[in-house]
Amino acid sequence: MAQRVYAQIKEAQPNAAITIATNAAQLDSIRNQLGDSVRVVIEPERRDTFPAILLACGYLALEKNISYDETVIVLPVDPFTELGFFGALTRLDKLVSSTAADIALIGIKPLLPTSKYGYIVPGAEIAPNAFLVSQFVEKPDEKTAGELIDDGAYWNGGAFAFKLGYMMGIARENANFANYGELHSKYGELEKTSFDYKVVEKASHVAVVPYNGKWADIGTWRTLTDEMPASALGNVVSQHTRNTFVVNELGIPVVALGTKDVIIAASPDGILVSDLIESSQLKPIVDKLEHARPMYEEMHWGNYTVVAQDRESLVRKMSLLAGKSISCQPGQCRGHVWVVTSGCGELSLGNKTQKLAAGDVAKIARGQNYKLTATSDMQITEVQIGGRFDEGNVVRFSPEEGP
User: Is the pTM of the predicted complex or chain greater than 0.90?
Assistant: First the structure.
């Protein structure tokens, strides 16, 4: 999704300056997907879209010295849409630049009444094909949605624009800071809430620009299933099922028999079995699991999958890309053993350097510093022994050398 949206923005608006707001756990994945040159603002912790957007605006204003008169357009990463949608963003810029609105949004012309999306009810026309927002309605039932569509309502496309100065004013109302570093350090004090609720729905002058084209929000499993190329992806056996979708990222098979209106998703991090409609309620459950140790991660150097763990040991399969390195910060290394199953590389261990190839075994003592550089793509089975193995104990490496 990140690759698709990024590419569409660049095709529609080649000169667009793109900044991605995300959390530290996703930084390596973003770099792998989009390259090292993309500008990224790292959220110190997960606190929803309101603080994330404030932090990104603080970065633009205080670190990049962007003019307060510049227009900022905020986009989620999950719209499945056409190039024309991104071309329409210039209309948002014109609205906020003309001071006709403090915030301007894209409204999607609905295809059918659905409870999947929020709705925007337009009011008076303030510019050609641009309207003041009369009301926001968040995910109504289908009967109410039909009535809203009859009244000319649009789906909320999740894209909006404002002047940087407007948002910096809101930022200073919510935090006391003199520079970006202070705003970053006070991030945890900002209210954990959505930008729509905290800002958009309470703003005095909000406008909507209609977009009449293909669009879908695939931020939930239910909406993602509408765009899946097949009902089953991965190692799946399915019989006598109706409206059942299975995504299997595991090596073992998933068998679905006689199910109806169900999504099944299996990955190293967990297994989801849900009614399609109820799957939209997943977010608060995931929020409670956010401190669980990740079982699969994309890293700057490649990726890893945890295949076994207990109180005293952890086993993971690591894929290290050619030319990439992993190293350990002084005194923070847990003792472990590497078995190279394919590829080759060079290991610096203390003052010694040795070549590693398929079949070789390397032992690293607790607290011993090392650096491994892959000369070709490497597959390594790693066994860590001793200590706690939750995510808080995972050593993070410098972006130049590793995770």
Answer: no
